[in-house]
């Protein structure tokens, strides 16, 4: 059995009001991963988050899936608390989040980098003291016309996008599993389209 422990964080905003928003794709991907693990989220005693503990495959690394209860811009506190509780270093943290600068339906996986204006990443960088964690970036594209970015990310996917969203969520979940099992280079080769 592997002794590795990975924290996989789905970034989003809590509550039904935000459930279908572009900003909540991280929650959708962690839901898919939890389903694959055959488990449901439970409130964690040490952090302001819901978690699922398990493995993606028998004998594989231990996985902690997490969805912070805080709003996006305060995600770092629960992430840091969970890292402390499970003794996980930032190089074993994967953040799943929406990305404006990538077209909808496209994924990018990387290690480290800035926050690119993403409040959830900014909060994580601040709380962890580093940006050296993995990111699975689910493209949502730029807002059409002159729509404000905040209005765009806090709105539901279009009808056309909703038809493709399931495939993006599945691909992102596959990318997380690949990253844990096979490492960054193979994951990038397979998923960075």
Automatic annotation (TrEMBL):
Pfam families: Pept_tRNA_hydro. InterPro entries: Pept_tRNA_hydro, Pept_tRNA_hydro_CS, Pept_tRNA_hydro_sf. Coiled coil: none annotated. It is found in: Cytoplasm. It is an enzyme of class 3 (hydrolase). The keyword Glycoprotein does not apply. Its EC number is 3.1.1.29. Monomer. Hydrolyzes ribosome-free peptidyl-tRNAs (with 1 or more amino acids incorporated), which drop off the ribosome during protein synthesis, or as a result of ribosome stalling. Catalyzes the release of premature peptidyl moieties from peptidyl-tRNA molecules trapped in stalled 50S ribosomal subunits, and thus maintains levels of free tRNAs and 50S ribosomes. This is Peptidyl-tRNA hydrolase. It comes from Nocardioides phosphati.
């Amino acid at each position: 059995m592997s002794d590795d422990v990975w924290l996989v964080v789905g970034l989003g905003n809590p509550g039904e009001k935000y459930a279908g928003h572009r900003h909540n794709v991280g929650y959708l991907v962690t839901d898919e991963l939890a389903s694959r693990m055959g488990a449901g989220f439970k409130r964690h005693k040490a952090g302001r988050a819901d978690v699922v503990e398990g493995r993606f495959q028998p004998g594989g690394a231990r996985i902690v899936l997490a969805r912070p209860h805080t709003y996006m811009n305060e995600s770092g506190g629960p992430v840091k608390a969970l890292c402390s509780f499970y003794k996980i270093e930032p190089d074993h943290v994967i953040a799943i989040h929406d990305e404006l600068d990538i077209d909808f339906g496209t994924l990018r996986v990387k290690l480290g980098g800035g926050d690119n204006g993403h409040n959830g990443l900014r909060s994580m960088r601040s709380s962890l003291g580093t940006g050296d964690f993995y990111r699975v970036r689910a493209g949502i594209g730029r807002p059409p016309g002159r729509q404000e970015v905040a209005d765009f990310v806090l709105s539901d996917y279009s009808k056309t996008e909703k038809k493709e969203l399931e495939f993006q969520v599945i691909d992102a979940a596959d990318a997380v599993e690949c990253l844990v099992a096979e490492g960054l280079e193979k994951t990038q080769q397979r998923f960075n389209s």
